[in-house]
Amino acid sequence: MADVPSMEALEALLRRLPGIGPRSAQRICYDLLVRKRNLLPQLATALERAHAAVRFCQRCNNLSEAPLCAVCKGLHRDHSLLCIVESPADLRAIEDTGMFSGDYFVLMGHLSPLDGVGPEALHLDRLSERLAEADLQEVIFATNPTLEGEATAQFLADLVPAGITISRIAHGVPVGGELEYVDRGTLGRALHGRRLLDE
């Protein structure tokens, strides 16, 4: 493929996306150039439009084409609850449950000193504004149950003003899971975060 540098450039860009390795990038490249060639102009147009239009919500830092995202513009949100997540995908996952009606703040990442990601990358100035709002009563940390996610939650918890409840989403056995197949760390968290049956 050395004689097709444009294909190599496309593959190299695809490999930079999460979850796409060299083989996947090569398959996607061939598929676009051979079987789905008519998608290329549409894909290029969609990428250009998204690049030009999509920004960060001024209130929660979610992706949005307007100053406020659709969630922040919702009329029936409980502004006393603030759920802090790592990414727009995490926000979407929680919204899709239909179980949370409060506000969000999207960090756009997590602390990772080894990768050069420090507190300055987490939009702390915008988060501080949200934490200072008078009607805020509880901050819920919904960062991922990884070392980085836990460290991020611990670090940010120190920024929450006194008098505001701080909580963490529960971690444990998935619905439909069998205990004998659950790893020890997950099972330990489930025991630690147990609740009363009548709750």
> What order do the helices and strands follow?
HHHEEEHEHEHEH
Nearest-integer average pLDDT: 89
The oligomeric state is single chain
- Tally of individual helices: 7
Number of strands: 6
Q: Main sheet, how many strands, which sense, barrel?
A: 4 strands, parallel
Can you characterise this structure?
With 199 residues, the chain is of the alpha/beta class. It has helices at residues 5-15, 22-35, 39-53, 88-97, 124-131, 147-157, 184-192; strands at residues 55-56, 63-64, 78-85, 102-106, 138-141, 165-168. The strands form 2 sheets. Strands 4-3-5-6 form a 4-stranded parallel beta sheet. Strand 3 (78-85), helix 4 (88-97) and strand 4 form a beta-alpha-beta unit. Helix 1 (5-15) packs across helix 2. The longest helix is centred in the first third of the chain and has 15 residues, at 39-53. It is globular, with a radius of gyration of 21 Å. The model has no long low-confidence stretch (mean pLDDT 89).
